[in-house]
Amino acid sequence: MGVQLHRGAVAEVIIDFPPVNAVPADGWLALAEAVAAAGADSDTRVVLLAAEGRGFCAGVDIKEMQRTEGHEALIAANRGCAAAFAAVYDCPVPVITAVHGFCLGGGIGLAGNADLVIAADDAVFGLPEVDRGALGAATHLARLVPHQLMRTMVYTCRTVPASLLHGFGTVLEVVPPDQLRAAARRVAAEIAGKDPVVIRAAKASLNGIDPMDVKRSYRFEQGFTFELNLNGAGDRARQRFVEGR
User: Fold this and answer.
1) Fewest beta carbons less than 10 Å away: which of 34, 108, 148, 212?
2) pLDDT 10s digits, 73-93
3) Topology (CATH) of 2-178+196-242
4) Minimal CA–CA distance to 137: which of 165, 112, 101?
5) What pTM does this model have?
6) In whole angstroms, what is the distance from residue 146 CA to residue 170 CA?
7) Left (φ > 0), alpha (ψ -120 to 50) or beta: where does 59 sit?
8) Where are the domains of the chain?
């Protein structure tokens, strides 16, 4: 349970926080450290980011925030998410996410910053942040869906299926759930077979021509989450979620 790193030419980083992979604050930091460690290993050619359990990621652990006095858990979760998303983006080798079930909130940050996404046909993507009294990861959702759909998803908290993203080209393949990990490994093996020096140069060059500074953009979004928390809207929304209202 937690974050697992399996080293190799195709390094696998596995998220495992039962029951729904709502990641606690220290889990985001562990995830950032695992991805960074995999990328720093000269033997690593590709990183595969996947998850165990019912879904890829349900975002931050809101219950942890509500049972922790003060703002420490909120601040830690925000910093942890920023670190984990940045680790995926800055990883010197390509990162492939294998998404099954739900990819929500912080899961969008991970998938949106990845180089490739492979999804199971049961996967859905969404940002429930407005219903949770927070904002963030629209930066990353905008890398997966067109602009006005991104806005619609933020305002309504609707989810969309992997098949729709496949149509946009932002999900490379959609496969049955029991074939997800194998499909991701096939693509990873294809990339791992290339010259690793060239692949690392390609990753650096693609980040260098990216039109958006994803780290700065995401931290800007997070500022509004702090405002919502200060005026009480964030806490009210989180409490409604915890109480099931």
Assistant:
1) 148
2) 888 999 999 999 999 999 999
3) 2-enoyl-CoA Hydratase; Chain A, domain 1 (3.90.226)
4) 112
5) 0.96
6) 10
7) left
8) 2-178+196-242
